[in-house]
């Protein structure tokens, strides 16, 4: 086990290393060009300074959905709509840049408030942590799939 006292953390984009990172997105059916690497700066329990590069960590958010029977089709449409909305908001409307790594159907109890049962969510994972704020803003103003999350 390796223990680090966190001082600072950030991330950067790099080409995937086959032994550490996924190189192909099964969900999208495409080769992965860049993956996020989380860089953690800190000290060990003996006081040594360290910098860790964490691979295989994709930033994500949860989008609630009603539990439709066609969840797989909806997941692919959500990914395509999010990619298109992000590309338009970045001024590259004709771009086919993919920002969404994968969309998974998950169930869980919402963090806020009292809930008796689990709710259905889509876990939307992204390639770039810097795009998360833009995706959240677009989802909140219903620019994706013409629906509120």
From TrEMBL:
Q: Which GO terms describe its cellular component?
A: nucleus; zeta DNA polymerase complex
Q: Name one GO biological process term.
A: double-strand break repair via homologous recombination
| Catalytic activity, as annotated | DNA(n) + a 2'-deoxyribonucleoside 5'-triphosphate = DNA(n+1) + diphosphate
Alphabetized InterPro entries for the sequence: DPOD/Z_N, PolZ_Rev3, REV3_N
Q: Which residues form the DNA polymerase zeta catalytic subunit N-terminal domain?
A: 1-55
Q: Where is the DNA polymerase delta/zeta catalytic subunit N-terminal domain?
A: 56-133
| GO terms, molecular function | DNA-directed DNA polymerase activity
Pfam families per the UniProt record, alphabetical: POL3_N (PF24055), REV3_N (PF24065)
Q: Which PANTHER family match?
A: DNA POLYMERASE ZETA CATALYTIC SUBUNIT (PTHR45812:SF1)
Q: What is the protein name given in its UniProt record?
A: DNA-directed DNA polymerase family B exonuclease domain-containing protein
């Amino acid at each position: 086990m390796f223990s680090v006292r966190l001082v600072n953390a950030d991330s950067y984009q790099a080409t995937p290393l086959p032994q550490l990172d996924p190189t192909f997105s099964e969900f999208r059916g495409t080769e992965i060009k860049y993956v996020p690497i989380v860089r953690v700066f800190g000290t060990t329990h003996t006081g040594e300074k360290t910098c860790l590069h964490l691979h295989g960590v994709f930033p994500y958010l949860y989008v609630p959905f009603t539990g439709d029977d066609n969840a797989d089709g909806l997941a692919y449409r959500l990914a395509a709509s999010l990619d298109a909305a992000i590309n338009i908001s970045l001024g590259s409307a004709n771009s086919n840049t993919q920002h969404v790594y994968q969309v998974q159907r998950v169930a869980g109890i919402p963090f806020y408030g009292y809930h008796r049962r689990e709710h259905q969510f889509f876990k939307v994972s992204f390639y770039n942590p810097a795009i998360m704020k833009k995706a959240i803003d677009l989802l909140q103003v219903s620019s994706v799939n013409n629906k509120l999350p």
